[in-house]
Amino acid sequence: MTSRRVVLTRTAAVIGAASTGLLLPEIVRAQSNRVRVGFMLPYTGTFAQLGVAIENGFRMALDEKGGKLGGREVDFFKVDDESNPAKGVENAQRLVQRDRVDVLIGTVHSGVQMGIHRVARETGVLNLIPNAGVHAATRAQCAPNVFRTSFTNSQPTLALGKPMVDRGHKRAVWITWNYAAGDEAFEGFEQSYTEAGGTIIRKLGLPFPNVEFQALLTEIASLRPDAVACFFAGAGAAKFLRDYAAAGLNRTIQLYGSGFLTEGVLDAAGDAANGVLTTMHYSDSLDTPRNKQFRLEYAKAFRMQPDVYAVQGYDTGLLLIQGAQAVNGDLSNKQALYDALRGATIDSPRGKWTMSKSHNPIQDMYLREVVGRENKVIGIARKAVEDPGTGCRMA
Ligand code: PHB
């Protein structure tokens, strides 16, 4: 229905243009000469600000190159995926079939990603994943046309176990949202924490995007662990930090997390986040010219501080720019395009990274501590973390 309406509308536009004497072939050529970039991101719900940061970062990378890809102008198309997995396939199809995008940038939520993934595999459209860490996308279901610029869900937590045990925190409670991202973050945590000699005394969870933490916090208080480790993100993470502190737990039980817990939420969390320790492939305070320049430029352009999501969006832009340049803007030259994306080195604000064979970043993980309104880097928790890409066979 939608596509028929669009076709009719186009026909009407054609007739209208012809009758006003416009040179239609010229218009058509000009349009097909433009690259069509589709954003499928959350613009509402608990991850809304993550979607905005990713789009901002992506646009900033392109703006630095005069707004072009391989010499071609760019048209943008947007769909709000609401972090709703039930609409994942339908929303991706809207961009691919209705808007005929050359590249689909998306998304944040792992469940929604699997909808995009189905459409990417069925249609062959180029998909760049600027956040969602779902393992399958670059493991058993990896695909030649799917590249991730962010992380796999277990990458940050693979770096978390050792610093916890090093600090004498050997009995921990794990808490998260029960969905792919939380489950897979747990896999990394379980591996690194038990390898380091820690014991997980309880696993707690609640459905995404539920933020009724009270009963679970009461349970944590009665369990008296040395530490709590978690995966939360976005507005839900800010609420968790505030509730954890309001329950008084921040004074007695050290809180750890994969770094999403403290990304983009430090203003909303206020003092509640102070002292929280996390592992992540980025830190605000990385003292490199590249990061400082990025932060300055982003703050100037968008009147807000960048976070890891902005960096991932920016890197997605850098990757696509490299690919488009390699094929002189001809994105239909897929083999050459994918070769360029696979072989890219990204000079990112997070530090330089390269693509693994299964199309996921090989990157350092930093240990950070929240000090005031900043994620302060303490050091590298684990160097060159590469997802194993288990089961990936590129067709
Ligand atoms: C995910 O669903 O994969 C996800 C969402 C938000 C994050 C990280 C991972 O911050």
Structure description:
The structure is a single chain. The N terminus is likely disordered. 48% of the residues are buried. It contains 14 helices and 14 strands. The strands form two sheets. Strands 6, 7, 8, 9, 10, 11, 12, 13 and 14 form a nine-stranded mixed sheet that branches. Strands 2-1-3-4-5 form a five-stranded parallel sheet, sandwiched between helices. It starts with a helix and ends in a 10-residue tail after the last strand. It is an alpha/beta fold and 395 residues long. It folds into two domains: 191 residues, Rossmann fold; 146 residues, 3-Layer(aba) Sandwich (Rossmann fold), CATH 3.40.50. The structure holds P-hydroxybenzoic acid. The site of P-hydroxybenzoic acid (PHB) has 11 residues, from loops.
List the helices and strands and how they pair.
Blueprint: H1 2-19, H2 24-32, E1 35-41, H3 48-63, E2 74-80, H4 88-98, E3 103-105, H5 110-123, E4 126-129, E5 146-148, H6 155-158, H7 161-166, E6 171-177, H8 180-195, E7 199-206, H9 214-223, E8 227-231, H10 234-246, E9 254-258, H11 266-269, E10 277-280, H12 289-302, H13 308-326, H14 334-342, E11 345-348, E12 351-355, E13 361-371, E14 374-385
Parallel strand pairs: 1-2, 1-3, 3-4, 4-5, 6-7, 6-8, 8-9, 9-10
Antiparallel strand pairs: 10-13, 11-12, 12-13, 13-14
Helix pairs in contact: 3-13, 4-5, 13-14
The site of P-hydroxybenzoic acid has 11 residues, from loops.
